[in-house]
Structure formats: structure tokens, C-alpha cells
From TrEMBL:
GO BP, sorted A to Z: polysaccharide catabolic process
Keywords: Carbohydrate metabolism, Glycosidase, Hydrolase, Polysaccharide degradation, Signal
Organism in which the protein naturally occurs: Rhizoctonia solani
Extent of the signal sequence: 1-19
Family (UniProt): Belongs to the glycosyl hydrolase 12 (cellulase H) family.
Protein name per its UniProtKB record: Xyloglucan-specific endo-beta-1,4-glucanase A
Amino acid sequence: MAKFTLAATFFVLSTMVSAIPTLGVRHHTEGDKANTHPAGTSTPHTVLTEQWASESIGNGQYTLYNNLWGAKVPGTSGSQTTQALSYNDAQKTVSWKTEYNWQGNPHGVKSYANVALEKGIRKNINSISSIPTKWSWKYDSVSNPLTADVSYDLWLSRDPNSGPSSASSTVEVMVWLSNRNAGPAGSKIATAKVGGLDWALFKGRVGTWDVYSFVAASEISNYNANLLPFFTFLRDDPQIKLDLNQYLVAVQAGTEPFQGSATLTTEAYSVAIN
């Protein structure tokens, strides 16, 4: 994620309460903690505990974020830690886990612990031929009930130097692989066939940008696909006609907990932009 300050927007969005996720501002301040470990070493990775803690992974290939952006909302209590487990330089694959226990403000997102791609981003979507990704993940422990999603988060802007959830963001595209008692921003507008799978497509508005959320019909814990067709679907749909003459400024993969406790482990994750 890019580092920027949208204090006013963050306060308004993070205090929203509704029957759907309060999606949107997932940002960092300039005081974020960053730690770097060389790829291929056995050096233990740092346990990220602070709200905006982060760690560079694989010589700058990815950044791992704790990103507890909703943790300070009144009525919220709990904690979360995130840690990289390993990195395979040959395959550009990272494994990591996050553990959380959140209570209160049940309809508000507490965090978005995630891995963000750092190399190859900020390209015009029209110049991209594919966005191959593999993601194998599992819940090691989970409370009953749990309200959370496991999702990709991709951001568009007309400014190639923009970061996600910024004033210049235009479109946020989420791909939900898991939905446990949560619901995307906005309302359902269609059923989409992308990559041979059926997705419920939701559209909402957060801040200055539109949010399109593709929600899988059933949980997908091993995902191997190309993310580009989600954008071309939005372009080709006659009711949406999304303008793709924009820049892909962020590609993230993580989890949004609302309420409950869980340990989520990513056994292997990779993404690239071609």
C-alpha cells in the first residue's frame, strides 16, 4: 500500500455502521514500521503487532501489512498480529499468517492484513496481458460464529503514482474467495461468469471511488487463475462499460475480519503482472 494521509476520509468511513462491510480506507501513515529480510534466508520474520506495521518480503517483491485500519473505531476491542513465514525466490511465492480476535462494532471491518505486490504495478490496464495468481490458504482455527472475508483487492487510478484508497482512486475491484457471514459494499447487480466460475457481483461506492465485488458462490481455498478477466468483464458488460484506460496501482490479497477470532494461514501466494 502507498503511504499517505487521508485523515478526514478515514474517520468518516471507518465509523460507518451498516449491515454490510465498511470497505474503503486501508491506508498507512509515514510512521509505518518496515523490516526487510533477504530472500532465501532462514531469518525469522518479524511478528507485526502495531496498527500500521509492515515488512518488505523478497527483496521488495511484496510488502506484508498488518493494517488494523478499523481497530480504533469506538466500540471496537481486540487485537491482531501478522507474520511472514517463508519466501521462495525462484517462484516468487510467500507464505504468511495472521491471528486475530475482534469484538464490538459487528458490521465494521477491523483490518485488512494483506500482501501487496510491489514489482510490476502502475501499468495501464490496457497494456496488461495477464495477472496470473496462485493462492493456497486455510483457517487453522476459527470461532463460531465468525464474520470475515478472504479477498483480493485491486485498485485503479488515472494517476500512475497514486496509492490505494486515495483521493485519486477511481475503482476498487475485490475478488472474494471466502465469505463467512459478511457482505460486500453496495448491492448485487449481476451474476458474473469469470474464469469458468460463477460470482455474485456487487456494486457500491466508498469515498470517491466505485467498488465492484465479485463474491464466489462457495469458498475457494486453492485458487489458480488470471485476475485480468475480472476487469475485462466490467469493461464488456453493457450496463457497466468500465473505462480501462487507467492504471493498476495496487494488487493486494488478505482478509477482512468484522467480528470473531481466527488464525488464517497462507501456505503459498504469488501474483504477477504481465
